[in-house]
Structure formats: structure tokens, C-alpha cells
Specification:
There is one protein chain. It is built from one helix and ten strands; from the N terminus they run E-E-E-H-E-E-E-E-E-E-E. The chain is mainly beta. The protein has one domain: Metal Binding Protein, Guanine Nucleotide Exchange Factor, Chain A (Beta Complex), CATH 2.170.150.70. It has a seven-stranded mixed beta sheet, with no helix packed on it. It has a three-stranded antiparallel beta sheet with strand order 1-2-5, with no helix packed on it. Strand 6 and strand 7 form a beta hairpin. InterPro entries: CENP-V-like (IPR052355), CENP-V/GFA (IPR006913), Mss4-like_sf (IPR011057). Keywords: Metal-binding, Zinc. This is Aldehyde-activating protein.
């Protein structure tokens, strides 16, 4: 599967966005945050991520080295994306694939990443 454009957002619909991701590059991370939330992530350069609605509905959480701004809906609590700096220094959007419209995550084969060791 190549890069595709998807719509996505939180559970209550307050936060909506459009982004371009390659679901074949999805990961499942076991870090202290992703593991607890059950996140499956795919990444997009911030230039390919557009928040369409809900900026005022977003809260933010940072931990560890504060490199990633974990964004969540203050109404329903769902973290549908995060913004951070990739290993190459580029600004990236980390998309919670479970929050993309029309995606059955059970058909995906995310790469397992050992985030606990970073």
C-alpha cells in the first residue's frame, strides 16, 4: 500500500484532520504511553497533516524528553495524533491509525517497536 489521504479525528468529532500516511509503515510501540493506550501509529510530515477543526478542543501532554506533543480531545479524551521531531530532525505528525476513518486495524501488520528501550 502506498501513501494515501485519510480523514480522522477523535471519538466525539470535535477534532478532525486530514493526513497522508502509508499504513504499511505502521508501528506498534511498547513505550509507557503507547503501550497503555494501545496506539498503532503511522507518520506523516507536518506539511501533509492539516487540522481541520478542534484546535480549541485539544489538550496536550508531554513527558520524558518533551520531544512529542501528545494532543488529545479535552471532551472525549481520545489522542488521535501527536506532533514531534523525527530522528532526522523533521517535524512529524504521529497519527493514531485507530482514529482514521474506515480503517480496520485488524487487517494491518504493524512493526513492533521497543520504545521502552529508548
Amino acid at each position: 500500500m502506498a501513501k494515501q489521504v485519510f480523514g480522522g479525528g477523535c471519538q466525539c468529532g470535535a477534532v478532525r484532520y486530514e493526513t497522508t500516511v502509508d499504513l504499511d509503515q505502521a508501528i506498534s510501540c511498547n513505550c509507557s504511553r503507547c503501550g497503555r493506550l494501545g496506539l498503532i501509529l503511522s507518520f506523516s510530515p507536518v506539511e501533509e497533516f492539516q487540522l481541520q477543526s478542534g484546535e480549541d478542543a485539544l489538550g496536550e501532554y508531554q513527558f520524558n524528553q518533551h520531544r512529542i506533543r501528545h494532543r488529545f480531545c479535552k471532551t472525549c479524551g481520545v489522542q488521535s495524533f501527536a506532533i514531534g521531531t523525527g530522528p532526522d530532525g523533521r517535524q512529524m505528525a504521529a497519527i493514531n491509525v485507530r482514529c482514521l476513518d474506515g480503517i480496520d486495524v485488524h487487517t494491518l501488520h504493524p512493526k513492533q517497536v521497543d520504545g521502552r528501550s529508548f
